[in-house]
Amino acid sequence: MRLLVVEDEVKLASYLKRGLEADGHAVDIAGDGEEGLWLARNQSYDVIVLDIMLPKRNGFQVCADLRGESNWTPILMLTAKDGEFDIEEALDTGADDYLTKPFSFVVLSARIRAIARRGAPERPAVLEVDDLRLDPAAHTVERGGTEIKVTAKEFSLLEFLMRHSGEAVRKTNILNAVWDWDFEGDSNVVEVYIGYLRRKIDDPFDRASIETVRGVGYRLRVGR
Amino acid sequence: MRLLVVEDEVKLASYLKRGLEADGHAVDIAGDGEEGLWLARNQSYDVIVLDIMLPKRNGFQVCADLRGESNWTPILMLTAKDGEFDIEEALDTGADDYLTKPFSFVVLSARIRAIARRGAPERPAVLEVDDLRLDPAAHTVERGGTEIKVTAKEFSLLEFLMRHSGEAVRKTNILNAVWDWDFEGDSNVVEVYIGYLRRKIDDPFDRASIETVRGVGYRLRVGR
DNA sequence: GGTTCCTCTCAGCGTTCTCTCAGCTACGGC
DNA sequence: GCCGTAGCTGAGAGAACGCTGAGAGGAACC
Question: What is the CATH number of the domain that holds B31?
Answer without folding.
Answer: 3.40.50.2300
